[in-house]
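Entry, Tuesday afternoon. Goal for today is a structural model of the target with calcium ion bound, before we commit to ordering more compound. Inputs were pasted exactly as handed over by J.K., no edits. I checked the ligand SMILES twice against the vendor sheet because last time a stereocentre got dropped in transcription.
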Amino acid sequence: MRLRLKTEELRRPTRVLALLWAALFLLGSTAWSHAQTPWKILWFNSDTGSVSFWDMNGITITDSHVLVNGVPAPWHLVGTLDMSADTKPDLLWSNRFSGDVAFWLQDGDHTTSYGQIHLGVPTDWEVVTSTDINGDGYSDIVWQNNVTGDVSYWLMVNTAYVGYGFLAQGIGPNWKLRGMPDLNNDGRPDMVWQHASNGTVSFWTLDDTVQATSGIIATGIPSEWRLSATPDVDGDGRPDFLWQHSTTGDIAYWRMDGTHRLSYGLIATGIPTTWRIISTY
Ligand SMILES: [Ca+2]
Ligand SMILES: [Ca+2]
Ligand SMILES: [Ca+2]
Protein backbone atom coordinates (compact mmCIF):
# COMPACT_ATOMS: atom_id res chain seq x y z
CA MET A 1 0.00 0.00 0.00
CA ARG A 2 2.77 2.37 0.96
CA LEU A 3 4.76 1.41 -2.09
CA ARG A 4 1.78 1.97 -4.41
CA LEU A 5 1.22 5.38 -2.92
CA LYS A 6 4.84 6.24 -3.53
CA THR A 7 4.56 5.09 -7.15
CA GLU A 8 1.44 7.24 -7.63
CA GLU A 9 3.25 10.23 -6.16
CA LEU A 10 6.13 9.67 -8.52
CA ARG A 11 3.94 9.17 -11.54
CA ARG A 12 1.76 12.23 -11.02
CA PRO A 13 4.46 14.86 -11.53
CA THR A 14 5.92 12.86 -14.42
CA ARG A 15 2.53 12.94 -16.14
CA VAL A 16 2.19 16.67 -15.47
CA LEU A 17 5.66 17.27 -16.91
CA ALA A 18 4.82 15.19 -19.97
CA LEU A 19 1.65 17.19 -20.53
CA LEU A 20 3.53 20.46 -20.07
CA TRP A 21 6.16 19.32 -22.53
CA ALA A 22 3.52 18.42 -25.10
CA ALA A 23 1.79 21.77 -24.61
CA LEU A 24 5.07 23.65 -25.03
CA PHE A 25 5.87 21.66 -28.16
CA LEU A 26 2.47 22.44 -29.66
CA LEU A 27 2.78 26.10 -28.73
CA GLY A 28 6.24 26.28 -30.24
CA SER A 29 5.06 24.85 -33.53
CA THR A 30 1.96 26.99 -33.97
CA ALA A 31 2.30 30.19 -31.96
CA TRP A 32 4.86 32.96 -31.82
CA SER A 33 6.26 35.20 -29.16
CA HIS A 34 4.26 38.41 -28.81
CA ALA A 35 7.14 40.37 -27.23
CA GLN A 36 8.48 42.11 -30.32
CA THR A 37 10.19 45.16 -31.70
CA PRO A 38 7.85 48.15 -31.23
CA TRP A 39 6.20 49.53 -34.35
CA LYS A 40 3.55 52.15 -35.09
CA ILE A 41 0.33 52.47 -37.05
CA LEU A 42 -0.39 55.94 -38.44
CA TRP A 43 -4.09 56.81 -38.86
CA PHE A 44 -5.89 59.65 -40.63
CA ASN A 45 -9.51 60.70 -40.21
CA SER A 46 -10.53 62.73 -43.27
CA ASP A 47 -13.81 63.86 -41.60
CA THR A 48 -12.04 65.59 -38.74
CA GLY A 49 -8.61 66.17 -40.30
CA SER A 50 -7.04 64.22 -37.43
CA VAL A 51 -3.80 62.27 -37.36
CA SER A 52 -3.20 59.66 -34.66
CA PHE A 53 -0.77 56.90 -33.80
CA TRP A 54 -0.98 53.50 -32.26
CA ASP A 55 2.16 52.24 -30.56
CA MET A 56 2.34 48.52 -31.16
CA ASN A 57 4.26 45.64 -29.66
CA GLY A 58 3.57 42.53 -31.70
CA ILE A 59 -0.22 42.56 -32.00
CA THR A 60 -0.73 44.47 -28.73
CA ILE A 61 -1.70 48.14 -28.78
CA THR A 62 0.49 49.62 -26.05
CA ASP A 63 -0.44 53.30 -26.46
CA SER A 64 -2.32 55.66 -28.75
CA HIS A 65 -2.41 59.40 -29.13
CA VAL A 66 -3.58 62.16 -31.45
CA LEU A 67 -0.92 64.22 -33.19
CA VAL A 68 -3.16 66.88 -34.71
CA ASN A 69 -6.85 67.71 -35.28
CA GLY A 70 -8.60 69.96 -37.78
CA VAL A 71 -6.33 69.83 -40.81
CA PRO A 72 -8.38 71.59 -43.55
CA ALA A 73 -10.49 69.19 -45.65
CA PRO A 74 -8.74 69.28 -49.02
CA TRP A 75 -5.52 68.10 -47.39
CA HIS A 76 -5.23 64.35 -46.88
CA LEU A 77 -2.43 62.57 -45.12
CA VAL A 78 -1.16 60.12 -47.75
CA GLY A 79 1.98 58.63 -46.30
CA THR A 80 5.16 58.78 -44.32
CA LEU A 81 8.72 58.89 -45.45
CA ASP A 82 11.99 59.82 -43.85
CA MET A 83 12.80 63.01 -45.75
CA SER A 84 15.20 64.51 -43.26
CA ALA A 85 17.23 61.26 -43.14
CA ASP A 86 17.15 61.13 -39.33
CA THR A 87 15.31 57.75 -39.37
CA LYS A 88 12.23 59.53 -37.97
CA PRO A 89 9.30 59.41 -40.39
CA ASP A 90 7.96 62.67 -41.78
CA LEU A 91 4.42 63.25 -43.02
CA LEU A 92 3.35 63.53 -46.65
CA TRP A 93 0.18 65.44 -47.56
CA SER A 94 -1.87 65.73 -50.75
CA ASN A 95 -4.44 68.42 -51.56
CA ARG A 96 -7.37 66.60 -53.17
CA PHE A 97 -8.52 69.72 -55.06
CA SER A 98 -5.32 71.37 -56.22
CA GLY A 99 -3.08 68.28 -56.44
CA ASP A 100 -0.39 70.05 -54.41
CA VAL A 101 1.94 67.78 -52.42
CA ALA A 102 3.37 68.99 -49.12
CA PHE A 103 5.45 67.67 -46.24
CA TRP A 104 5.78 68.11 -42.51
CA LEU A 105 9.18 67.27 -41.11
CA GLN A 106 8.67 65.56 -37.76
CA ASP A 107 10.75 65.05 -34.69
CA GLY A 108 8.43 62.44 -33.23
CA ASP A 109 5.21 64.33 -32.39
CA HIS A 110 6.76 67.74 -33.01
CA THR A 111 6.54 69.33 -36.47
CA THR A 112 9.87 71.08 -37.03
CA SER A 113 9.20 72.50 -40.49
CA TYR A 114 6.96 72.14 -43.50
CA GLY A 115 6.88 72.95 -47.19
CA GLN A 116 5.69 71.93 -50.62
CA ILE A 117 7.25 69.35 -52.93
CA HIS A 118 5.21 69.86 -56.07
CA LEU A 119 2.15 71.82 -57.20
CA GLY A 120 -0.80 70.68 -59.30
CA VAL A 121 -0.28 66.92 -59.61
CA PRO A 122 -3.30 65.54 -61.57
CA THR A 123 -5.75 64.25 -58.95
CA ASP A 124 -6.21 60.83 -60.60
CA TRP A 125 -2.72 60.05 -59.27
CA GLU A 126 -2.70 58.81 -55.64
CA VAL A 127 0.24 58.18 -53.34
CA VAL A 128 0.45 54.47 -52.47
CA THR A 129 3.59 54.20 -50.38
CA SER A 130 7.15 55.31 -50.01
CA THR A 131 10.25 53.18 -50.35
CA ASP A 132 13.78 53.54 -51.65
CA ILE A 133 13.30 52.69 -55.33
CA ASN A 134 16.83 53.38 -56.58
CA GLY A 135 18.76 52.19 -53.52
CA ASP A 136 20.43 55.55 -52.76
CA GLY A 137 19.25 55.62 -49.13
CA TYR A 138 16.56 58.26 -49.71
CA SER A 139 12.88 57.28 -49.56
CA ASP A 140 11.04 57.79 -52.83
CA ILE A 141 7.30 58.29 -53.40
CA VAL A 142 5.23 55.67 -55.27
CA TRP A 143 2.04 56.68 -57.06
CA GLN A 144 -0.77 54.84 -58.84
CA ASN A 145 -3.17 56.34 -61.34
CA ASN A 146 -6.71 55.33 -60.33
CA VAL A 147 -7.93 55.44 -63.97
CA THR A 148 -5.13 53.74 -65.90
CA GLY A 149 -3.57 51.70 -63.07
CA ASP A 150 -0.11 52.95 -64.09
CA VAL A 151 2.41 52.99 -61.24
CA SER A 152 5.10 55.65 -61.18
CA TYR A 153 7.65 56.90 -58.68
CA TRP A 154 9.24 60.16 -57.74
CA LEU A 155 12.90 59.96 -56.84
CA MET A 156 13.52 62.20 -53.85
CA VAL A 157 16.61 63.60 -52.16
CA ASN A 158 15.48 64.89 -48.80
CA THR A 159 12.46 67.07 -49.61
CA ALA A 160 13.45 67.67 -53.25
CA TYR A 161 11.88 65.92 -56.23
CA VAL A 162 14.75 64.92 -58.54
CA GLY A 163 13.19 62.66 -61.15
CA TYR A 164 10.56 60.07 -61.95
CA GLY A 165 9.97 56.76 -63.69
CA PHE A 166 7.39 54.02 -64.15
CA LEU A 167 7.10 50.62 -62.46
CA ALA A 168 3.99 49.42 -64.32
CA GLN A 169 1.94 50.66 -67.25
CA GLY A 170 -1.23 49.50 -68.97
CA ILE A 171 -2.46 47.18 -66.20
CA GLY A 172 -5.90 48.80 -65.88
CA PRO A 173 -7.72 50.22 -62.85
CA ASN A 174 -8.68 46.95 -61.08
CA TRP A 175 -5.26 45.96 -59.76
CA LYS A 176 -4.47 48.20 -56.81
CA LEU A 177 -0.88 48.44 -55.65
CA ARG A 178 -1.05 48.03 -51.84
CA GLY A 179 2.55 48.10 -50.81
CA MET A 180 6.17 47.55 -51.74
CA PRO A 181 7.64 45.22 -49.11
CA ASP A 182 10.77 43.20 -49.80
CA LEU A 183 9.21 39.79 -50.45
CA ASN A 184 12.24 37.81 -51.66
CA ASN A 185 14.66 39.15 -49.04
CA ASP A 186 17.13 40.71 -51.47
CA GLY A 187 16.99 44.08 -49.69
CA ARG A 188 15.02 45.76 -52.50
CA PRO A 189 11.30 46.55 -52.72
CA ASP A 190 8.82 44.29 -54.51
CA MET A 191 5.11 44.88 -55.23
CA VAL A 192 1.91 43.53 -53.65
CA TRP A 193 -1.35 43.95 -55.54
CA GLN A 194 -4.98 43.51 -54.53
CA HIS A 195 -7.67 43.14 -57.19
CA ALA A 196 -10.55 45.55 -56.56
CA SER A 197 -13.30 42.99 -57.18
CA ASN A 198 -12.18 39.37 -57.63
CA GLY A 199 -10.43 38.98 -54.24
CA THR A 200 -7.00 38.04 -55.60
CA VAL A 201 -3.81 39.22 -53.92
CA SER A 202 -0.73 38.90 -56.11
CA PHE A 203 2.89 39.97 -56.22
CA TRP A 204 5.69 41.01 -58.49
CA THR A 205 9.28 40.75 -57.50
CA LEU A 206 11.39 43.51 -59.00
CA ASP A 207 14.84 43.57 -60.49
CA ASP A 208 15.53 47.26 -59.86
CA THR A 209 12.41 48.81 -61.41
CA VAL A 210 11.57 45.93 -63.78
CA GLN A 211 9.21 43.04 -63.03
CA ALA A 212 11.26 39.86 -62.49
CA THR A 213 8.64 37.30 -61.35
CA SER A 214 4.97 37.30 -60.42
CA GLY A 215 2.55 35.04 -58.59
CA ILE A 216 -0.59 34.69 -56.51
CA ILE A 217 -0.53 35.10 -52.73
CA ALA A 218 -4.23 34.50 -52.01
CA THR A 219 -7.59 34.28 -53.74
CA GLY A 220 -11.15 34.95 -52.61
CA ILE A 221 -10.38 37.76 -50.17
CA PRO A 222 -13.60 39.77 -49.65
CA SER A 223 -13.17 43.20 -51.16
CA GLU A 224 -14.11 44.84 -47.83
CA TRP A 225 -10.72 43.74 -46.50
CA ARG A 226 -8.17 46.25 -47.68
CA LEU A 227 -4.50 45.36 -47.46
CA SER A 228 -3.39 48.56 -45.72
CA ALA A 229 0.30 48.17 -44.97
CA THR A 230 3.12 45.64 -44.71
CA PRO A 231 4.73 46.12 -41.28
CA ASP A 232 6.92 43.54 -39.57
CA VAL A 233 4.36 42.52 -36.96
CA ASP A 234 6.26 39.63 -35.37
CA GLY A 235 9.72 41.20 -35.46
CA ASP A 236 11.41 38.50 -37.55
CA GLY A 237 12.72 41.08 -40.02
CA ARG A 238 10.28 40.06 -42.77
CA PRO A 239 7.18 42.03 -43.83
CA ASP A 240 3.73 40.91 -42.71
CA PHE A 241 0.32 42.06 -43.92
CA LEU A 242 -2.03 44.43 -42.08
CA TRP A 243 -5.70 44.52 -43.12
CA GLN A 244 -8.52 46.97 -42.41
CA HIS A 245 -12.17 46.03 -42.98
CA SER A 246 -14.10 48.84 -44.66
CA THR A 247 -17.44 48.21 -42.91
CA THR A 248 -16.72 46.48 -39.57
CA GLY A 249 -13.56 48.47 -38.82
CA ASP A 250 -11.76 45.28 -37.80
CA ILE A 251 -7.97 45.22 -38.06
CA ALA A 252 -6.30 41.92 -38.88
CA TYR A 253 -2.81 40.65 -39.57
CA TRP A 254 -1.22 37.92 -41.60
CA ARG A 255 2.22 36.79 -40.53
CA MET A 256 4.09 36.15 -43.75
CA ASP A 257 7.15 34.27 -44.87
CA GLY A 258 7.66 36.17 -48.10
CA THR A 259 4.58 35.34 -50.17
CA HIS A 260 3.43 32.48 -47.92
CA ARG A 261 1.02 33.04 -45.01
CA LEU A 262 2.18 31.55 -41.69
CA SER A 263 -0.75 32.53 -39.45
CA TYR A 264 -3.33 35.24 -39.00
CA GLY A 265 -5.50 36.91 -36.40
CA LEU A 266 -7.23 40.07 -35.24
CA ILE A 267 -5.54 43.10 -33.69
CA ALA A 268 -8.67 45.18 -33.01
CA THR A 269 -12.37 45.22 -33.81
CA GLY A 270 -14.90 47.94 -34.52
CA ILE A 271 -12.56 50.86 -35.21
CA PRO A 272 -14.72 53.70 -36.68
CA THR A 273 -14.30 53.48 -40.43
CA THR A 274 -13.73 57.22 -40.78
CA TRP A 275 -10.24 56.36 -39.51
CA ARG A 276 -7.99 54.89 -42.14
CA ILE A 277 -4.58 53.28 -41.80
CA ILE A 278 -2.14 55.41 -43.77
CA SER A 279 1.15 53.70 -43.04
CA THR A 280 3.18 51.73 -40.54
CA TYR A 281 6.77 52.04 -39.51
CA1 LIG B 1 15.84 56.64 -53.32
CA1 LIG C 1 12.99 42.24 -53.04
CA1 LIG D 1 7.50 39.48 -39.90
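The first helix runs from residue 2 to 30.
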